[in-house]
Amino acid sequence: MTTIDYSERIPNNVDLASDRRLQRALESWQPKFLDWWQEMGPALPTQDVYLRTAVDVGREGWAHFGHVALPEYRWGIFLSERNPDRTIAFGDHKGEPVWQQVPGEHRADLQRLIVIQGDTEPASVEQQRQLGMTAPSLYDLRNLFQVNVEEGRHLWAMVYLLHAYFGRAGREEAEQLLMRNSGSDDAPRILGAFNEETPDWLSFYMFTYFTDRDGKYQLGTLKESAFDPLSRTCEFMLKEEAHHMMVGTTGVDRVVTRTAEIMREHDTDDVARHGGVPLEMIQKYINFHYSVSLDLFGGDTSTNVANYYTAGLKGRWMEERRSDDHQLRDAIASIPFIEGDRLIEKEIPALTALNVDLRNEYISDCSNGVKRWNAILADAGIDTKFSLPHVGFNRQVGTFSQHRITPEGKVVPQEEWDARVGDYLPNADDKAHVASLMQPVYEPGKIASWVAPPRSGINGQPFDYEYVHLA
Ligand SMILES: [Fe+2]
Ligand SMILES: [Fe+2]
Question: Which domains, from first to last, does the chain contain?
Fold first, then answer.
């Protein structure tokens, strides 16, 4: 059964109607979610938005597009199709059938993994709450809201698992997911990057490029889980997530394109005067968002993650495409490490280096964006090249957090860092300039000065389509 039942109060493809207790519990969580959405979701008043809604989880034609009033969006519970022959791909239980229920001994760990993932979803909606006020076009405004409603749906995805499989403790965690808030002093979100502000649209594009991409890799490891409902949930979330990263990738493309245009038009690097974002500012935004996103991969060595792997809770990225024994009992991996003020590699058991393994996959994916943006500059005849800063740069988590490391990877004393940090990360002037560009453009077909229009619209619609009707 893959088709989604929209006749229910909570659209779903999990036959929710057959479990009255679960249905009632989720129906009592629903109004709390809607209250949270009103209070913490998009602040800009709108009549309706051209959104996609999932209608199926199969390969084709899974989404329907149409104008919807945001609070009436049909958030629901959608799991990918079940594969009845699926077996565990890694760890001690490799080759055994996957689990349809939570084994008692893994209950606490699985619940924790789901809560941490679930906490990031509403956090990003909160971080992006004010952005509608300064959208560079109706097309961008629509993309923001699409990302927001889908992050809201990802919260539903995790809350469903908590309610359906973790009893009373799960229901309590589901409540807490609406109580913590991004940046709150008393009850912040669990992970640091999700308590940072997303104050402007350059940050939003960077966030959807770098931070949503972290989400892709985390979901990729949970998709491998032996707990089949978690795996199927994450598989469908990944499908939605692809759009969020498209928003980020093409968003940064369009800023770079526009900056290159202004540079050529006025024959100057000083595009700030002409309403653009200078290349070195873009680089600083890359440095910031990339480094805070690296923190999301956790400590460089982790026995927790080794245990999750051995137990079958969380696999590696593309586990089944790896050509080793999928147990790693004697395997060795090398990870970067600092000795004195020298960066070296050290060898450790591969199981405890799994965070670095995932981080490395992420880093090579991120470098594709940099190549793309450099190709835009090269096509415009500009020699400047963007780069990803060193993995140890500006880190708050893990072995590098004890050191100050430049984007080039040099370990420097604190005083040198303090003197140079404004060259590495967006400083007050950079932020003020970007903020000054954030003037809303709500006329169909028009766009702000600092960003190029997209190459194509959404679902075959033109750029000047009325993607959003403001209130
Ligand atoms: Fe998400
Ligand atoms: Fe996302």
Answer: 16-470 (1.10.620.20)
